[in-house]
Structures are given as C-alpha cells and as structure tokens.
C-alpha cells in the first residue's frame, strides 16, 4: 500500500508541474503578442490575477527584475467630496536600462483601463466619483514586456451640495475681421445644487483661451435648472487662428462645469463695395424733391458701422464741389441708421431725399468712405436732367437757348485673373490686396476675390469706371509686377502676376 500511495503522490506532483509549465508558457505568449493584438486581449487576460489549482488560490510569483507600480493619487485611505475632480495616478519603478511601456488600472473590479504614460509616471482620466467606496488596482509592463505585481489602494467620496454648469450654445462667429467689434453671447445652464450670484463670486471666466478675454460677471441670481446668457463685447485681435474658451468659476469651489471652447479665424481687414442698384430719376423740375435710394454690397472683410472706429458712409464724389452735392446742399455724407452694422457679403440700402437745383444736366456720383481713411469700392453714378419751371404767362416769351447737355461718361467694368508667386515658386490663388489708378483718381485700394482658375468664367479682379487708362499695381507689401490697360468699354483685360520680393 505504501508504494501505491507514493505513486499517487508522484503523479500529483507531476500534474502540478505540468500545470505550472502550461501557465508559464501562457503568460510568456501573452506578453510576446500583446503589442500585436492590441489592448482588448490584454485587458481580458488581466482579469485573472490568480490561478486555481486543485481548488486553492495561488498568487503568481514575480522575478526580482519585474517593474513595480504604485498608486499615488488618490492617497490610500483618503476621503473627499464627490464634486471634486480627480484622476487616479501613480508611478512605475523599473531596473536600469528599462522603462514603463504600459499601465492599466481598474475600479471595484471593473474593466481594465489603459492609463496615459509620461516617462515612468501614469495618469488616468480626471473625473468626479459619485458618493461611495472605491478599490483601485493597477498593473504595469516594462519595455521588455515583464509584468509587475498588482498594486491596490482605496478611497471614499462623500456628498455635499455643489455647483455645476452645462454649456448650451453661443453666437460667436467662427470668422472675424481684425479690429472689428462684436457683441456675442454664451448660454450656460445651472445644473448643480447651488444658486449662482455675484456675492459668491460666480462668473464665466476665460479658460484655455488664446485670445485675450475678460471674465463675465452676473447681474442677477441664477437658480438651479435655469439657464443664463452671458453677454460680451469684444474686438477681434490681429489676423491669425485663435481659441475662445470659457468656464464657470466661483470663490468657494473655483472651476466647475463644462468648458466652452471654439476655434476662431481672424482675417486681415480691408474695405470694398459693389453697386447693387440705384433708384434715381432721369428728370426733375427745379425745386422738386424725390426720395431716392442706392443699394451697396459689402465686398470686403471689414464690417461697416454707423458709428465708432469703423464708421462708413455713402459719400458724394468731389464733396461740396461735386454735382451730387447740388441736390442736397447741407452735407456730402449719407449716413446709415444708428446702430447699423453691415458685415461682409451683406447689402445696405441708403435712402435719402434730393432736391433739384437750377436747370441743367448733372452727372451725380456716390461712393463708400471709411471715415478718416479712404474712399473705396465702385462708384454709383447717374445723369439727372433738371428742367426749369414753366413761366405762368399767356403771352409767349423768347426763351434763351438751353445750355448744351453734357454727355455723361458711361461706367464699365474690366476684369481678369490675379495671382501671387511666392519666393519658392508656389502660386497663391487666394485674395490679394492691390491698388489701381484710373480717370477717377489714383491709389484706390481693392482686394481680389481669389480662388478661380485661369479658365474659370469668373474673375479674380474687377475695376469699375469710365473709359481711359488704368494701372494695377502693389506698392506696399514688397511685390513686383503690374498691369496697364485701356478700359475700352470693359471686358477681360488680362492677368496680373505679383512676385514676392
């Protein structure tokens, strides 16, 4: 019988050795293929940290050169409020010439989550932890694939009333023009347990913003489950790409709630205008008054404002000495309604009253002006013939010969392609600032529309005016090249190529 019992013991030892060898081979295979098959298989295999042999739990043994992972935050046994944002984090210790390659952690026996690594320090996602007790486990791998023993710690969160906020919407434009003012709004909802008020220091403060912005305070109390619209007046900075960011803040809890972030592109400011239509009479009688209108479209990037730094208005060409002024006599400016703002691409209708002067033929002209800077855009022009009042007498009288009627100069449009060649030889096909001279004056500033090919029926540049000699050039930005042409009733006048110096 003793030989039989010895035989059973030897068979049991042999079976144990075979099982341990099989487990060792399995672990080595997992470590060798974990970088090839991704995290899913690793996470599933991590779910058994102990192996059952003959019904008993047996801890896996680790060699002396295995990495060691520690959990630093939250500290083991710590206790804090449930509204507190925190992240599970720690470090990995490895032997020389090795470094941490992967770290996983889990809470209360849940799924394993891969942590972010920086050198040998690891960090999990920052979040709130609802009221309760938490058991944290972490495991690490070094650069050779060797696994660490499992580290563990525990913490507890307790509840208290706390503020919270949810971003609801905004009207901040994604494209702005440098120097233009904007009135914008950001809507947040109070989703917490406390009221927002100025006495508690509640405000919407810049967070993660690359654009210089002020905090926005409260002038009212916002109760839970109520939304509030924060208003802001801002001026777009210099051209470039920016991020506008805000988040709620108060004195007792500091930052809380969702963060608002938006990408904004600020463009270079330039002015341009196009004549859309004119409602002007061809004939009037001396002393007669008419309500007339001119519709202008903003073709530049800069907005037109009725007042302030960007004030724009419709100007009577040649001022008080021009023909248009004779139909007004009090001012050579036609202003927009107070508070008006005309953004790029929008139209504005200038309505005003004219009064016929002495008999004659008058060629009236109107053009947009940026106050204190320059006139810009197409000229709106028309001829008005003013007739004398009939003489109330039965006897015929000899009327003096009428003065010759001046022939109005027709207005035409010339257009063509415009490109910029960089120093490296690449062609830029976007909008290009340029200047032109013509019969109406010199050094008018415009910008090409850009983005059309040489064979496209549209065009990059267009200039309006009477027949005569024109010259297109750029004399401020270090470009070479120009185009000179005769208007000759408009049409395609060719290509302008500017070369970067």
Automatic annotation (TrEMBL):
Organism per entry: Methanocella conradii (strain DSM 24694 / JCM 17849 / CGMCC 1.5162 / HZ254)
Tell me what this protein is called: Next to BRCA1 central domain-containing protein
Biased region (Pro residues) positions are 391-409
InterPro entries named in the record: Ig-like_fold (IPR013783)
Q: What is the lineage of its organism?
A: Archaea, Methanobacteriati, Methanobacteriota, Stenosarchaea group, Methanomicrobia
Q: Where are the transmembrane segments?
A: 20-37
Keywords per UniProt: Membrane, Transmembrane, Transmembrane helix
Give the top-rank taxon of the lineage listed in the UniProt record for this protein. Answer: Archaea
- Which residues lie within the region annotated Disordered? 390-410
């Amino acid at each position: 019988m003793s030989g039989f019992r010895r035989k059973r013991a030897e068979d049991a030892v042999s079976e144990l050795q075979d099982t341990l060898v099989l487990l060792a081979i399995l672990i080595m295979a997992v470590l060798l293929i974990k970088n090839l098959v991704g995290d899913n298989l690793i996470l599933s295999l991590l779910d058994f940290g102990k192996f059952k042999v003959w019904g008993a739990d047996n801890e896996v043994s680790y060699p002396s050169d295995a990495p060691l992972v520690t959990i630093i935050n939250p500290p083991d046994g710590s206790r804090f409020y449930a509204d507190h944002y925190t992240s599970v984090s720690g470090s990995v210790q490895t032997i020389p010439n090795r470094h941490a390659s992967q770290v996983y952690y889990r809470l209360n026996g849940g799924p394993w989550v891969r942590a972010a690594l920086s050198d040998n320090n690891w960090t999990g996602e920052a979040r709130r932890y609802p009221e309760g007790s938490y058991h944290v486990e972490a495991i690490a791998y070094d650069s050779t694939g060797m696994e660490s023993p499992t580290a563990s710690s525990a913490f507890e969160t307790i509840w208290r009333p706390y503020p919270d906020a949810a971003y609801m919407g905004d009207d901040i434009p994604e494209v702005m023009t440098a120097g233009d003012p904007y009135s914008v709004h950001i809507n947040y909802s109070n989703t917490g347990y406390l009221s927002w008020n100025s006495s508690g220091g509640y405000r919407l403060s810049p967070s993660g913003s690359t654009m210089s912005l002020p905090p926005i305070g409260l002038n009212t109390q916002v109760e839970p489950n109520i939304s509030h619209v924060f208003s802001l007046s801002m001026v777009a900075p210099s051209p470039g790409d920016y991020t506008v960011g805000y988040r709620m803040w108060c004195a007792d809890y500091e930052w809380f709630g969702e963060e608002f972030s938006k990408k904004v592109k600020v463009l270079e400011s330039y002015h341009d205008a196009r004549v859309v239509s004119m409602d002007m009479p061809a004939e009037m009688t001396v002393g007669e008054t008419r309500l007339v209108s001119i519709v202008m479209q903003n073709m530049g990037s800069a907005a037109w404002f009725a007042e302030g730094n960007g004030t724009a208005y419709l100007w009577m060409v040649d001022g008080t000495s021009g023909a248009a002024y004779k139909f007004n006599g009090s001012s050579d400016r036609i202003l927009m309604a107070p508070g008006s703002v005309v953004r790029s691409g929008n139209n504005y209708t200038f309505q005003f009253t004219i009064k016929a002067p002495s008999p004659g033929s008058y060629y009236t002209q109107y053009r947009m002006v940026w106050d204190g800077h320059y006139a810009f855009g197409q000229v709106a022009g028309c001829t008005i013939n003013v007739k004398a009042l009939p003489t109330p007498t039965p006897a015929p009288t000899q009327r003096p010969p009428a003065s010759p009627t001046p022939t109005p100069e027709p207005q035409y449009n010339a257009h063509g392609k415009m490109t910029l060649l960089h120093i490296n030889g690449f062609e830029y096909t976007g909008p290009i600032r340029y200047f032109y001279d013509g019969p109406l004056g010199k050094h008018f500033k415009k910008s090409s529309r850009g983005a059309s090919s040489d064979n496209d029926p549209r065009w990059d540049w267009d200039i309006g005016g009477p027949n005569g000699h024109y010259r297109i050039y750029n004399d401020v930005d270090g470009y070479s090249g120009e185009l000179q042409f005769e208007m000759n009733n408009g049409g395609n006048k060719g290509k302008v190529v500017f070369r970067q110096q």
